Amino acid sequence: MADTLLAGPTTTAPARRGHLGPSPWHALAYVAPALVVYAAFVLYPLGRAVHLSLFDWDGLTLATFVGLDNYLDVVTDGDLRAAFGHALVLIVFFALLPTAIGLVLATLLTRARVRGLPFFRTVVFLPQVIAMVVVGVAWRQLYAPDGSVNDLLGIVGLGGVARAWLGDPTFALPAVGVIGTWVQTGLVTVLLMAGISRIPDQLYEAARLDGAGPVREFFAITLPSVRAELAVALTLTVIAALKTFDLIYITTGGGPGNRTSVPSYEVYNRAFRLGEVGSAAAVGVTLTVIIFAINLAVARIGERR
């Protein structure tokens, strides 16, 4: 009898809790609509791109299965290798330079207690709200042989280096990269200003009592405190660098030659101009994998303590 009384609650309580608790199907029901939308607009197109990348297809006639040949072309085709190389160069201009400049600007604007801070924040962020097509047209005029850039160089006595910047095989890619630096610096600065403004002033006061100067404060307090914001900024800007298309299309059209061609432009060029849909899909899938890998690495580094 005593054994029965002792055993009763231990055998019925778990079953009662399981009956009254939330069912796993309830959670699935909540996320199901989002999963359906995500699958319809992200997973299915991605799967369809992977499927097309295994065929030689011009978009009109019957497709021919070629296996991984299109991916082999991504590795062996010199133009495609150059396009991916250009995208990696643009990471320097779209991600690394804006991060460095934005970190300095955010520190100065936040720690120096600049008057009219909302005005400066708006001015710095302004390039982000301008359509990239407008940015491309404006900078194409600035880089023209009779544009403002060459006029400014002539005023400061550097007229000898004036040139058609977007038509020069050597300087065309850096010229496009400078536009990316101008656009992305505002986004990075605003993100880092939000992170720096959350750092308690007591930390800086304690550092000054220990004899730390502005440089040591920056490396000992500011930089470690905005690691998460840096990871977000790098993720967004690296994605912008690797998937940029409109800026290249408007400013250089991939030229001169193929000196500014990037993977996104090659996807458009091969799919809609050359009729190589399978090859374009392979380039797109490869670019997606590279973007995922780079941003996964950035996220893992940002999570380290």
From TrEMBL:
Residues 84-298 form the ABC transmembrane type-1 domain. It is found in: Cell membrane. PROSITE patterns: ABC_TM1 (PS50928). The chain crosses the membrane at residues 27-47, 84-107, 119-139, 171-197, 218-242, 277-298. It holds the Pfam family BPD_transp_1. It comes from the Bacteria. It is a multi-pass membrane protein. Coiled coil: none annotated. GO terms for biological process: transmembrane transport. Keywords: Cell membrane, Membrane, Transmembrane, Transmembrane helix, Transport. PANTHER family: ABC TRANSPORTER PERMEASE PROTEIN (PTHR30193), DIACETYLCHITOBIOSE UPTAKE SYSTEM PERMEASE PROTEIN NGCF (PTHR30193:SF41). Belongs to the binding-protein-dependent transport system permease family. This is Carbohydrate ABC transporter membrane protein 1 (CUT1 family).
